[in-house]
Amino acid sequence: MGDWWQRNILEPGKLPLLLALGAFVLTFVITRVVTRLIRAGKGPFGNVEAGGVHIHHVVPGVVLTVVGGFAAVAGGRHGFGSALAAVVFGIGAGLVLDEFALILHLDDVYWSEAGRKSVEVVVITAALVGLVLAGFTPFGVDNVSQDELQDRTNVIATVGGNFLFSLLALAKGKARLAIFGVIVPLIALIGAVRLARPGSFWARRFYARRPRARARSRLRAYHHDRRWSGPTRTLQNWIAGRPDPPRL
What we know:
The N and C termini lie far apart (55 Å). By secondary structure, this protein is mainly α. Helix 8 runs antiparallel to helix 9 (175-181) and helix 9 packs antiparallel against helix 10 (185-193). Strands 1-2 form a two-stranded antiparallel sheet. The protein is built from 12 helices and 2 strands, in the order ααββαααααααααα.
């Protein structure tokens, strides 16, 4: 375990990524705590306004992300400057992605049902970066031996095949499996071989004249959503707070 930690986490090239991930997660947690306190009217915190305009925290987040990104490019991968740039970038990314839903909808949906997208994006981002830190590389290149790496044909075939699995999973309406499948190809393969979700591109294109396949797809999606929607909603409420009821 110690050797694995030293090799995959504490090696100099990955230290900035570890710092960025830590800053990203910590910023998201602190931001959610503060916004929930503001929402509840507790504590010394309040919304930031300038000239009657509510300044969302995505604004300083964009500034910090840009500063941290350019500083990282200019400072290289080693030294104190690189570490500082990684922390600044992680803080900025945490602030930005905490309001991902606002950017997506161009509306203040932070406490609405649509605002849950921000939590999903933050969790997925943290998980993907964690997988990279753990030693995984996109499209399964980490599973290719040194001899195979010398052969470009093998590398191209590996990347192309795993990319195809992710693309098929995405076409079948399994976006999360497709995203994680970029890092862990087996996950994308599972999404690629299973039934497509109703309404997905694959279902519209290939199930149009297959009523049994359409029925099986709808039934499987119904059981899946019924099984996981409750725990997922509970977890999201615990992390981000319960959304406001829809306006009538």
